[in-house]
Amino acid sequence: xxxxxxxxxxxxxxxxxxxxxxxxxxxxxxxxxxxxxxxxxxxxxxxxxxxxxxxxxxxxxxxxxxxxxxxxxxxxxxxxxxxxxxxxxxxxxxxxxxxxxxxxxxxxxxxxxxxxxxxxxxxxxxxxxxxxxxxxxxxxxxxxxxxxxxxxxxxxxxxxxxxxxxxxxxxxxxxxxxxxxxxxxxxxxxxxxxxxxxxxxxxxxxxxxxxxxxxxxxxxxxxxxxxxxxxxxxxxxxxxxxxxxxxxxxxxxxxxxxxxxxxxxxxxxxxxxxxxxxxxxxxxxxxxxxxxxxxxxxxxxxxxxxxxxxxxxxxxxxxxxxxxxxxxxxxxxxxxxxxxxxxxxxxxxxxxxxxxxxxxxxxxxxxxxxxxxxxxxxxxxxxxxxxxxxxxxxxxxxxxxxxxxxxxxxxxxxxxxxxxxxxxxxxxxxxx
Length: 432
Fold this sequence. Notes:
With about 425 residues, the chain is α/β, with parallel strands linked by helices. It folds into 3 domains: about 5-75, no CATH class; about 80-200 and about 335-410, Response regulator (Rossmann fold); about 205-330, Response regulator (Rossmann fold, 3-Layer(aba) Sandwich). Helices cover about 40% and strands about 20% of the residues. It has 11 helices and 18 strands. It has helices spanning about 35-80, 95-115, 135-150, 160-175, 200-215, 230-245, 265-270, 285-295, 335-350, 355-375, 380-390, and strands at about 5-10, 15, 80-90, 120-125, 130, 155, 175-180, 195, 220-225, 250-255, 275-280, 300-305, 325-330, 390-395, 400, 410, 410-420, 420-430. The strands form 4 sheets. The chain has a 7-stranded mixed sheet, sandwiched between helices. Strands 3, 4, 5, 6, 7 and 8 form a 6-stranded parallel sheet that branches. The longest helix has about 45 residues, at about 35-80.
């Protein structure tokens, strides 16, 4: 065996060294290396290979980290541009037609927004379903709490003042944005700065009803209201105040409840009061009963209600509803392009049975929250509240301005009936 010595073997042309690592140029044919130096050479090659491998692994890991970071950042960015919304309405009971309209309108609006180039997209929590308040305050609170467990950025609803008021109390305590859709009781937005609405308030609705009565030449009004309902109480009070200011004498005020089916006593007294105008600010489920019984008692004057009349069943009572009117947030017969586009799309998808003001308001609410995110610069609740404050919005329910209380300053529609079908009579702008 040829042993390696320190120095230069000129005969074999071998450069050798006893340094800790073996560096060589060439071994002659048949030469072998033994001893620790062979081990040292292999070791060097192994270290060199391991070093290269480590460098490659580090580079790969760095590259992977960068990719994952990029994906994570983009995922976060996408998530930050998604508004998580909970919705509440009556999905069961006598007012379920409102909930049906709300669900359909939300589905349609979300589909449109998410398919568009809108900066912010929308996710409806609760599996995309509207939480049921059944027009019951206790159930509304339960619905609110169940939605809050999913960490929404905003909650939309409800359509009723009596169930929205307790939810508004909770939302104010939670600093949660609550956008009420049909809750017209003036107290709703007084509860806190995170509470808004896209419907008009009862004082304005009552004022318009009294102004309409005056314009039609009526001078004596009878009122029948549900004493157990905040909505009904609020509209009654607003009408009484405005009627007196418009020179209309309130000659009778009768009470009922939201579950009453017999209005014979109130109808008889209204007729006996010599009233030429009856104001009934209650919801659609009792409207046909009241109208029929007042007419059967001999009343031939005008009967009027608020937006709660929208969707009332007039089947078989078409003649009874002649000379009946109600104020509302919009009319499907309004010739405004936004209205006609909404009506066309909604009818194609869902028909007309649930094409009511509730549907229009929940539809607008989705677009308002998307616009609020743009205005406020984010999808979080704080940004949405910022973007909603003082908002000017144009939608199906008209041009809306949210005042310092979060109340919607907007037009009011007056509808009537022809052959039992709702007909648009006129739209009154706020300045009028």
